[in-house]
Batch of 2 targets.
Target 1
Amino acid sequence: MNNLAHLVEVMGIDAGGTMTDTFFVRADGEFVVGKAQSNPNDEASAVMESSGDALHLWGRKLEEVYPELVTAVYSGTAMLNRVVQRKGMKVGLIVNRGMEDFHRMGRGIQCYLGYSLEDRLHLNTHRYDEPLVPAERTVGVTERVDCHGDIVIPLREKEAVEATTRLLDQGAQAIAIVFLHAHKNGKHERRVAEIAREILARRGSNIPVFTSVDYYPTRKESHRSNTTILEAYAAEPSRKTLLGISDRMRGVGAKYDLRVMASHGGTISWKAKELARTLVSGPIGGVIGSKFLGEALGYDNIACSDIGGTSFDMALITKGEFAIQKDPNMARLLVSLPLVAMDSVGAGAGSFVRVDPYSQSIKLGPDSAGYRVGCCWEEGGIDTVTVSDCHVVLGYLNPDNFLGGALKLNVERARQAIKTQVADPLGLTVEKAAGGVIEILDQSLRGHLRSMINAKGYNPLDFVCFSYGGAGPVHTYGYTEGLGFKDVIIPAWAAGFSAFGCATAEFEYRYDKSVDIAVPPSASDGTKTASCVTLQQAWDELAEKVIEEFRINGFKPEDVILKPGFSMQYLGQLNDLEIDSPLGTVSSVEDWNRIVEAFDETYARVYARAARSPELGFGITGAIMRGIVATKKPKVPMEPEEGPTPPRDSELGSRPFYQRGVWKIAKLYSMEALRAGNEIAGPAVIESPATTLVVPEGWSTRLDSHRLFHLREV
Amino acid sequence: MSSYSKKEVGDLVDGRLPFETVHRMLSMPKDQERFSLYLEILQERVSWPDKIILARGPHLYIVQDKDSKKWVNKCSCGHVMGEYNENWKLYANIFVRNTEALLNELQPKLMAPHHEWQELREFICPSCGILHDVEAPVPWYPIINEFEPDIDTFYKEWVKIPLPERAN
């Protein structure tokens, strides 16, 4: 594998709460994955250690490889944890006088976000989190802009002076300014920011000032204020962490600019003004990676599925595009950031298994052992049976090769726990009980996957299913069985697929702005032209922001490819659709008709041709501007095919394997030793240090020349 | 199934558990021994010897009188407030807030209910002065009997523990 002729070009970093994974890709498509314990106080060290672990496999040193790298993408959970644990900066908040409590009250939905359905209905579990800014650091200033952007009450500048002074006296480390309807007219917010900066200068302070209009000019003040506050509260501290990582990389010769995965599916520089959008990025990587592989291999409808220790995440790519959710929630807060749309359920390999004493039935989750695996890993300190325990007992997982042998699993301890906690209370044998657990999990995941696809009006027959995540390939056969996917694909690097996905993402900024354009069916040409002017103004404003972000990273405006978009709806409907504009600029009636046509086409594709309602007229709710610059991406691996018979050295013997009430003998293979073109019929288990691919009887798999396993029922 | 130590249940009573733990306790099927543990903890915190049957509130219990075996309502200070199947409120001192001035002691002007439409009745223990409950009905409304627990069914069919002797 140690081929010095090929440079190492791409690096992906996935810094989780417990492990920091790094993923290096060589110019010939070969890759290595490294792992190290995360270190919240010194993330740079964890990244270096993990890199060393990965590059060791190629027998290479950090100092040799870092100068070769052309791009590195980071995604991590540090910022999210800072918000969840409420350990951010002391932010001072300036709002409209009389509206001082709206941030603290929050939206009703925030008291049960992230809950299971049972708990959502179970009112006494609902709870409001501590606000990001407490009441005493929230100050009102008199002003009012109405919903059309007209000034109804002028700004009382004296109050702005008093407010700033008061916040500074209270030790505020940042100031956020959020006024009602500021997205329609930001004059007052900007004036208050000016006043605040004057006072700061006079007092010799340089704390940052954030206005919602310059960051997130979108409607819904709860979302807008949460996001603006997050920028001050959590993103600024992260910038320091990223600077630390970047500096350390430069220290070993890195020449690239470190980029960070952002919720909209692109990567942005750590120097970006709007850094809050890197708050949630981990699970998105897989979707981006699927899109990238799909483009390279010619799949344009993909169902992405990712099972880790705690959750099952699903996303759809249709016609080569993933969907964007515009007001998602992150860390139990509603925010106005674009997020790659995903559905998650709290079921994973670490989910706890319990018997409900009332219904005498098996109940999975919603909580999980996470990285502590289950009873089978004694050092993890878990006493409740988990799904992984069932896998170990049934021969799906190799107890001596979990995480490459880093953890030794105790089969007997798992067996005892299943016996006392699940099998005995239900009057079943251990195998039957454990087999039942797996079947219930598979069924529930299959149900979620099916309903996600059906609910959006699609049919699994038109999709290829990608399965990844450390625990994904163990379950793939179970949750895809009978759904009828065109193909089921498992990348050999399933465990590092999220980090891989991050490395494939575009260097892309995306900015959004709310606009209110309504064109009734009877509208005159004048209205249509005026609407184009409004949309174009919003695009110009956003394009300037996008280009400014790239300028910070040393790109020239002409390097930036701008992709304008808009959100449109039939007037009176509640939901809008996001459309990539067919035109770069709009100004005339013909332009208006052209973008309406693009919307009609998309609407017909997403819903149904007959559901189109042009007689209602058209409304535009938001303007979108995306900017991209060309970057280096990993190559899809390519190997020559070597025939269907696996090489001798890939065979690892056999192991008893329980399937549908019967013990069978499964042949074992080493994933790394398999060659392109090899075919394996079940029952078989294909093992690698970070993941296990289960091929039960009645199934077979084939490794193609891109190191992708295709799993199918025979 | 999940089970909790006596200390954890004690911390739950005192509101000292982190919310994540409380949430888990609320969401999971209840552990069988929880009620017995809960009663034990309550019993340790009162100074009188009568057996607690059920808590009616943070400071008010239905207890079995040690000598007569009659079930009565008892304040944590030991003051008895009628038999268990009577409305204990009728044995309390009642402070009625039925004027604007009295209501404005609690809520700012114009933010309290109008006294002709609603009054507040505060039920106070005649011995120790603790506030047991507040009700907020329209002024002419009789004293509300909040809750008549079906203790027999609760003990026998829900928590499945022996029902203590009852003389009344």
Target 2
Amino acid sequence: MYKTYETGFRSQRMSIKEKLMNISFWYVMFICILAAVGITMLYSAANGHWKPWAVNQLVRFGMGLGVMIFFALVDIRLLMRFSYAFYFFTLLLLVVVDVTGHVGMGAQRWINFGFFKLQPSELMKIALVLVLARYFHSVPLSTIESSKGLIQPLLLVLIPAGLVIIQPDLGTGLMLIMTAGAIFFAVGVQLWKFGVVFAAGIIMAPIAWHFLHDYQKDRVLTFLNPERDPLGAGYHIIQSKIALGSGGVFGKGFLNGTQSHLNFLPEKHTDFIFTMLSEELGMIGAVMIILVNFCIIAYGYSFAMKSTSYFGKLVAIGLTTNYFLYVFINTAMVLGLIPVVGIPLPLISYGGTVMLSIMASFGILLSVHINRNVTVGKE
Amino acid sequence: MNRDNDKGKVLINRSLIMAATKAFLLLCIIGRLYYLQVYQADKFKMLADENRISTRLLIPQRGIIYDRNHRVLATNEQNFQALIVAEQAPNVQDTLDAFKKIMPLTEAEEERIRRDLKRNRSFVPIKVKDNLSWEEVAKIQLNASDLPGIIIDDGLNRAYPYGEKTAQVIGYVAAVSDGDVKDDSLLEVPGFKIGKSGIEKYLEHRLRGKGGILKMEVNAYGRVMKEIEEIEGVPGENVVLTLDARLQEKAYEAFGEQSGAAVLLDVDSGEILAFVSTPAFDPNDFTQGLSNEKWKALVENEKHPLINKAIQGQYSPGSVFKPIVALAGLESGVIKPETRFFCAGKMFLGNHPFHCWKHVGHGYLNVVEALMHSCDIFFYETALRGGIDKIAEVARRFGLGKAVGIGLENEKSGLIPDKAWKYRRFGEPWQLGESLISGIGQGYILVTPLQLATMTARIANGGYEVVPTFFPLSAEQKDNIKKISVNKEYLDLVKEGMFDVVNIPGGTAWRSQFDYQGHRMAGKTGSVQVRRITLKERQSGIIKQEDLPWKYRDHGIFIGYAPADNPKYAVAVLVEHGGGGSSAAAPIASKILLESLKLDPLGVIRKK
């Protein structure tokens, strides 16, 4: 559809109208579908009330759409130019959070701006993708394949990841590392280097275990054996599986999930909203959500393929991978495939920061698509 | 530029691998969804229902126990309770304070309420006070506006209208304890009570019924959201006993303050018309939880109100055993109806003297006269000649030495000794002197009042093997009562002796006779020494029973039946430390038999 307004080959400047016309209709459509489903489920989570969640989420999604369009209109060259500035600014915020963070959910993750709470680790997910894309954009393959050339990007990853992990927010920290790992893989870092890191990881695991907080150890142990403490740490995942499984193929019906509405399912409006959805709408509803997410990810890849710039391709792949990680980790977690980590399901789970940061990343993805024919210099 | 192309190719290749990996991982998610939501759906549906559905057992109404005329012996009474629901009270303490102004609460009660409030979630009703009267309920309802959170709930309490008079038969119900057999999930229900003794225990399963089931939907905190379904239970079976509540009451009252037991039987069927053990306890106290003081008083009472003396008390029968000895003598031929022995007040076996209760002696008497006067010497002689084995055999035929098995707990079997028993028990041969004292019902012989009643009924009915029971016999069962092999002529002699005991001047129970429209009673007295009479006492003359401390006085026993000429009712009365059979037991037995003739629950007495 947007092809009608496709700009001429190598046209380096576009009017705002042109850019708007180039926004991928179906991509935005899929995002809106998920957000609508999310708001509907939040309405159900409040036992059929708009308050307290659904209406807030609706407002945030509206704001998120604004943020998305704003980023969609940003010139990709601008993104590249300011990627380091954005990265270091976010890094500074992370330090601030670590030093004087606001206590939330037992971990220091927020900066309170009064009217809203900023979670720098969410910004870092975008900043890291941009800064790595810029780095790999500007170096030749030989540098990428050399060990020396990996020192700088590794530092770019490990410093913020470390800051996030000591917050402590192990889940987000690991997500940063995995996103970066995906980028490293994409740009062609040799597989044996991943092998070395993986082996080192195995060796380090017992030492790392030692540094885990008790609740984190609990989560891992509980994942390995959910019956270990069925009323304590294992309660979440056992109840989640009961809710999911009892939903069956067709679900118990909207507003009729017994596990959710009788409060057996904890955190049903945030991290476990996919469980509630699967209980009420059944496997059909759950698979639909997975398929829509699949489409969003597939579109992300198509943006990457269409982009003529290495930077654009890498940004699209990195942000799409970030989004995929959210979806996969959250669903795998509620399905009992991986340990419980506090990763929400974007667009559906209740929560402002993730909504805004994920909408910003969608905006950047749209920008990559809109600017697919723009030549990006190496600088 | 070439390298840049390579760089781009690598990126595309690697990206495609990553895309494929992502697609695969999302497929894994779908696979997992299939596994949980299709393959294991049934299991999780069940688990979700287990979470959501809370099942409550509804206590069935316990069966009512009636006497033979459908008078209520045990029933269920409405019990009003005041409960408090914390979440409905803006301030629990204020409500409780307001409640105290209407109805005082003890320290202990307040303590319990506070504890229960702390232990339970705020929507769980907590008992404030139970067993409220109608007036109290009305008062609470009148002040309902000052008592937010207080609700009135009605349950059922077991009640025994005849109280202690039927306590030893009916028993009582109480909360389930650790030792009880948990054969029914009802027993897990808080507040559920089961039969702990007596008929309540014996017929527990018939009286209990089957619990109903109330299925409710609850949330994760246990709050009831809605009722799903209710399955009605089955109320317990009502039971009719053979007792006659009026006679039961009269028999109990006849004892006054005395400690003892009485069993009244229908001589033709063995149906138990009255069955008392005195003093008893009030079973109504037990159902509502006995206070420590009351329990202590019951346990420490020297008259043992918790013991069912009619079946758990084993006593030497004394002279009431003499009819058995007489029958044994007659059957074995060692005495004939006309045989007379001389009573000089004492006799010797070797060098050892054996005394008759009458020191001056009875002179010559035959078996009928010996029974009438309860002459000891005559029965010493008879026992000596007849031998213990013959006596034991007759005694067993008449129901002694073996537990009847009426269903009440801890029934004792008594003891009828013989030579083999002595050897088994002590490894020593039987002594002649032991036969001799067995002739007057002393020595090893032990009987329960219930066994004595059985024996009396079997003598009175002309030798039919009736077995005492609390449950009405069918006509067929009555027709099938076996005959004991006994010579009617001998039995008539014994009965003649028992008639004379009561109705001829000089008979040991002459003072207790009655004539109710021409109907009279027959019987036999017995006195049982509780301690040995020392030689010194014998020389210094007999000490009056009344002068002895209560627990050293003789037991008084009387067995009797009426009407004497056509026996219908048989009774055995034992008065612990009553002083003697004729003075203590016979008057009580006489009262009971006279009442049974007057009330005639069997409808067999010809009114003249």
